[in-house]
Amino acid sequence: xxxxxxxxxxxxxxxxxxxxxx
Length: 22
Fold this sequence. Notes:
By secondary structure, the protein is mainly alpha-helical. 82% of the residues lie in helices and 0% in strands.
C-alpha cells in the first residue's frame, strides 16, 4: 500500500488538473 503522502499528492494533482481542465 502506497504511503498516505503519495496518495494525497496524486489526489490533489488529479483534482486540480480535472478542475483546471473542466
